Amino acid sequence: MKLAVAGIAVLLLMAATAGAVTFDVTNNASATMGGHRFDRDYGVDLARQVLSDASCFIWGVFNQTSPADRRPVDSVALVVTDADGIAFTDGSTIVLNAGYVDNYTAGDVRAEVTGVLYHESTHVWQWGLQDYDAHWWVFEGVADFVRLKAGYAPAHWVQPGQGSSWDKGYDVTARFLDYCDTLRPGFVAVLNAKLKDGYSDDYFVQILGKCVQEVWLEYKAKYGQ
């Protein structure tokens, strides 16, 4: 009971600090089919709430109960517009491609957009993005790890143990990080904190006591891959 009460207290604290961050949503594509679908099936109000909820969730995953632990971000914005791909994040602005929303037919569009927003919100808050170009797979893997832990992993993702290399990024790396988190609860939180100084394979040795390749082989063996 004490642990449950403590956990609730932490969540309430993070929710309170979320009030110090503003969340803004703009649909610049309302005249398009994708923008219309966003308004009809998702909406600005829900998107704003999801941005706030996602931020609180990410702070929890990263063990950042105090604003002093986080990247200095005062506002998070979502812009729905015609763009390439699915979505991307520039600083604290998330851009969602209206065309992707329009063409999404693989399942519940509301769950998909929410999952995308959890992923992209992670890029707003994670440390070390100055090292993104050299080690993009780590940052995309952490973002998909957050999406996975939030319960928004889509059906097409690889299953645990699948993938040819841990540094494939996205779902492959997310599944591997999830395994690492079972070896050392809070692994991703510690890894994110270390990423302030850029990425190094040695972080696996520092946190788990083993090199990343050794952990990867053990992961593959666990799932018979």
* Rg value: 18 Å
Tally the helices. Answer: 10
Number of strands: 4
Unreliable runs, pLDDT <50, ≥5 residues? 1-13
Strand order of the largest sheet: 1-2-4-3
Derived from helix and strand composition plus strand pairing, the structural class reads alpha/beta
Order of helices and strands: HEHHEEEHHHHHHH
On the 0 to 100 scale, the average pLDDT is 93
β-strand amount:
5-15%
Helix content class:
40-55%
- What general form does the structure show? globular
Intertermini distance? 40 Å
Largest sheet entry: 4 strands, mixed
Topology at a glance:
Layout: H1 2-18, E1 22-27, H2 33-41, H3 44-61, E2 75-81, E3 87-90, E4 93-97, H4 98-103, H5 109-125, H6 136-149, H7 170-183, H8 187-194, H9 202-208, H10 212-222
Parallel strand pairs: 1-2, 2-4
Antiparallel strand pairs: 3-4
Could you characterize what this model shows?
There is one protein chain. The protein has a 4-stranded mixed beta sheet with strand order 1-2-4-3. It contains 10 helices and 4 strands. The protein has helices spanning about 1-20, 35-40, 45-60, 100-105, 110-125, 135-150, 170-185, 185-195, 200-210, 210-220; strands at about 20-25, 75-80, 85-90, 95. With about 220 residues, the chain is α/β, with parallel strands linked by helices. Helix 6 (about 135-150) crosses helix 7. The longest helix is centred in the first third of the chain and has 18 residues, at about 45-60. Helices cover about 55% and strands about 10% of the residues. It starts with a helix and ends with a helix.
